[in-house]
Task: structure prediction
Amino acid sequence: MVRLPILSLIEQGAEAVRKLMFPLATIGLLVPLWLAPASPPAHAATPFDGNWASRSLPTPVKPATALISYVLRITDGNISYADPAFDVSGRVAPNGQVRVAVRSGQREAVGTGRLSRDGYGEGSWSGRSTSASCSGHWEAERRD
Result:
């Protein structure tokens, strides 16, 4: 999903968009892994409920680009994030298909992909602000 014509825009405004990508990628969210709650739900309503650690990278990857890690919570198939600065809405379908949207001020991003019942997942994300857009790939692993 590299869009060569916008590389200059990405370089100029990528920092604002990267801040939004933390909560995604998709699935695009800034909490260090050690802050995630350690206990799983007593009775998970879906096989995907629990904490998922995700790592994402923007595309194209540059030498100075850092790997971004964050933790999302899935409860009854609904995706949430603990930081109130981000409006996160998303859902995991019974087959593991993921769709999530993240908004913060004038910035927004969407992520899609799939989680597996054995605790792994992957997908892609794209985001934009008033001055730039970018996209990338995410990978996730269950942490309960």
